[in-house]
Amino acid sequence: MSGYVVSRRDVLRAAATGALISTMATCKDGNPPLPGADGFVPGNTLPWTNWADTESCTPARRVALDAESDVLDVLARSPSPVRPVGSSHSFSGLVPTSGTLVATDLLTGVISTDPVTHQAEVWAGTRLHELGRLLAEAGQALCNQPDIDYPSIGGATATATHGTGLGFGCLSSYVTGLTLATPSGELIECDRQRRPEVFQAARVSLGALGLITRLKLQNEPALRLAEVTRVEPVEDVLDDLTSRFNSNRHFELLALPHTRLCVSVTTNEAKRTDVAHGFDDPHAVYKLRQVYRLVRWLPGIGDSTYESLLRAFMGDSASTVRVGPSFEVLAHHRIVRFREMEYTVPAEAGAACLRDILRAIRETPIPVVFPIEFRRVAADDIWLSPFQGRAGCAISIHQYGDTDYTPYFRAIEPIFWRYEGRPHWGKLHTLDAQRLAPLYPAWRDFQDVRSMLDPSGRMLNPHLRKILGA
Amino acid sequence: VCLLANDLLEAASPELNQRQETLLRVNCVQCHAVPGLGAPLIGDRAAWQRARERGEEALLRNVLVGVRGMPPMGYCSACTEADFRALIRFLADLPAQTRTRQ
User: Which of A215, A347, A454, A462 could anchor a disulfide with A391, C-beta 3.0 to 4.6 Å?
Assistant: First the structure.
């Protein structure tokens, strides 16, 4: 998610003039203690838990891969299932294993760059925050990137992670070649010419085909961007979506439930005259919740009072401007833990789908205030990409990490289904292979490659068996 | 921020081995070298005072379980218990044999 505004029109700051602040100061920020590793005894095997604390495991063996030469041996000799892990940011059960957990933290860095084609070969474990800096040193930048830079490039491409922008595909669509170590003992270099069927399967493969060690990326010359964040009426923005996406390099909106407002985030190449102001408050979503809790009990006027407070204190002029190298501007710090569900619906259905979600939240009503993210991603031809064959609007709903997300997600997920939504592989959803297969025209092709490369299913944990039907 | 982290890494070399320096650079600096997030910053001894008082065992538990904005394991799936302990000692400026208060 990008650019939550609360900065100079920060509700807390404005509320400091009244009794509001004293009440709000009693609201508790932060997440409760997480149970994952509570039972850990020093000297014993370390547990693993994902970022959102929705998945955990205690693997029989942990491997920190630091050389490509070791990878085939690890795949051949380690207990199954063998599961790779990057930054542990996936909400879904892609990683947990009772067998072998292969960490890629040490498989990091840029291997080579080409100043003419703006391509680079990188180690798959390289985290995006480091990749941005390293590419900049070589005069390159990722063409687009998600709004957090904690993930590894290997994990992000394995799950078709994306940013936003009419002309930009998911990260996997910028992979021009890769090296894949398979459980059957091959180290395969593939691209559109060499082993093209492996390439098409592996670009988005959930770590189900083996371990991807290297990626070749099509980048662009390093650039500076300016991001402008505003608060606007959500219907005005939805009515103007085509123009917003057409006339800006990157655009997204964050609808604010229980209001008629949204935060719009517009990002373009920086001009010399662009000046940064305001700041990207990493605690902003907690402050929204504090305000909502303060007024939602008001009989019949809770929502309108909440919206009035946001309008009064957030205003409708430009709130924040961030200017800098693209890898810094596109990334945002996220220190509020949450759980997330995201589906991509056909681009032309995006606005209707978002309106249905907002209506359901309002009419049910569902007491959620976490902004709903709406992004646009270009079509690609990758077999398991949610953007395969169609441009999409990726709509993400979130719930705070200390709140049960299941009632909210259960209520909204069927709306995504009505619009032929495809779930983000790394986020929460309830679909199994039977429901997923009809969404992907090349489903069978992927399964054939998977069976060929890993006939005994050494890479498959229970979650992968469920969603792939293997 | 990266320059700061690199400078501090150079200063840290006696305490961290090369592997641990990489783990620090890949994981810890994402928050502990970024002002404004609420995480105590590398090299800011005063900001780590409370953590130092809690001791290495309590900090290890915080890292494994996650605390406030920090996720479980501080993003580091490659870290062994020894790595976590070395990184905690470096960040909090704790001596190797700290007695702990649970």
Answer: A347
Q: Is the ipTM of this complex over 0.90?
A: no
Chain B residue whose CA is closest to A132: B2
- pLDDT tens digits for A222-251? 999 999 999 999 999 999 999 999 999 999
| Cβ-based neighbours of A40, under 8 Å, separated by 6 or more | A46, A47, B61, B64
pTM: 0.91
Q: How far apart are the C-alpha atoms of A420 and A423, rounded to whole Å? A: 10
- Return the amino acid letter for A30: G
What does DSSP say about strands A61-64 and A100-103: parallel, antiparallel, or unpaired? parallel
Instruction: For residue B100, give how far its alpha carbon lies from the nearest alpha carbon of chain A (Å).
Output: 14
CA distance A214 to A67: 11
> Do the Cβ atoms of A335 and B19 come within 8 Å?
no
Instruction: Please name the residue of chain A whose CA is at the shortest distance from the CA of residue B70.
Output: A335
Token pair for residue A67? 């050389």
B27: nearest CB among A36, A66, A105: A105
Residue A228 tokens, joined: 């402008």
DSSP-derived secondary structure letter, B92: H
CB of A291 within 8 A of CB of A302? no
Of residues A209, A11, A220, A191, the one with CA closest to residue A118: A220
